[in-house]
Design a protein that fits this description.
It is built from nine helices and four strands, in the order ααααβαββαβααα. It is α+β, with helices and mostly antiparallel strands and about 260 residues long.
């Protein structure tokens, strides 16, 4: 028994306990300083994710995508669905071949290609006004809608929102209606990433609440429940602060680090 007791008292955890008991004010002040610095670091975290955010310079795939983007147009898709409802003929039949609708679409196409984020545009008509040889791929069976397929550069979620708003403003200026749907796997991926991050943060709040309630029920102590939050919150704040100071973006892949820290 003496060997076990003496051995335990020499362990690192017991030495930390002795230091806390000997210097309580210093430990508390240090903890508060660490929390404040960590919160400042968290405020610097960039949560505007990109589709290619997990790739870095030097990666072959990253280099190839940039080469294609610079020389052949954007590699990430952006799809625009334009309705010809307001381009109907005098008989009220919705046809995309209406000359009035054609002129508006041609103006819209040449407006899109001048965007810095859009590298290429294709659709039912080419930029010069000629019908695309693959026109059947850009219209529906009823021939009252056409699809404009754009290739865009690797933009983040904030830039995507700015681009969408700019496209809608130009569309309304040209067509004078809101019959435009903006979609594509790029926007879906960016939206999914933001949704995953927000869901993860909400799950942390729920986890802290459950821990607080559980400790309160088990030990019937409100003070102990509050104290139990500190060893759960401080490591997460430190991890977030480090990410902010060294420039690690908050993406689904990196956000899972918080789950690991909370589990430990």
């Amino acid at each position: 028994i003496e060997r076990l007791v003496l051995k335990r008292e020499k362990t690192f955890s017991f030495q930390i306990l002795a230091a806390v008991q000997k210097y309580p004010k210093l430990i508390m002040c240090t903890s508060v300083a660490v929390v404040l610095v960590s919160m400042y670091g968290i405020a610097k975290i960039d949560s505007d994710v990109t589709v290619l955010g997990d790739l870095r310079e030097g990666n072959k795939l990253y280099t190839d995508i940039n080469f294609v983007e610079d020389n052949f147009g954007g590699t990430l898709p952006l799809e625009l669905i334009v309705s010809a409802e307001n381009g109907s003929n005098s008989k009220g039949v919705n046809l995309i071949d209406n000359p009035h609708f054609y002129n508006k679409v041609n103006t819209f196409l040449n407006t899109l290609i001048n965007y810095d984020d859009i590298k290429s545009v294709s659709g039912y008509w080419n930029l010069n006004g000629d019908i695309n040889i693959q026109q059947y791929k850009y219209t529906n069976k009823n021939r009252n809608e056409i699809r404009l397929s754009c290739g865009i550069r690797n933009i983040d979620s904030e830039e995507a929102e700015i681009l969408k708003n700019q496209i809608r403003q130009d569309y309304y200026r040209i067509f004078e209606n809101n019959n435009l749907n903006i979609t594509g796997s790029t926007l879906l991926a960016l939206k999914m990433n933001k949704y995953l991050i927000s869901s993860l943060l909400n799950s942390f709040i729920l986890a802290f609440f459950i821990i607080f309630i559980s400790i309160n029920i088990l030990f019937k102590s409100f003070k102990l429940s509050l104290a139990s939050m500190l060893p759960n919150i401080i490591p997460l704040l430190c991890a977030g602060g480090v990410m902010g100071f060294i420039g690690i973006e908050l993406r689904p892949a990196t956000a899972m680090t918080f789950s690991i820290a909370l589990g430990i």
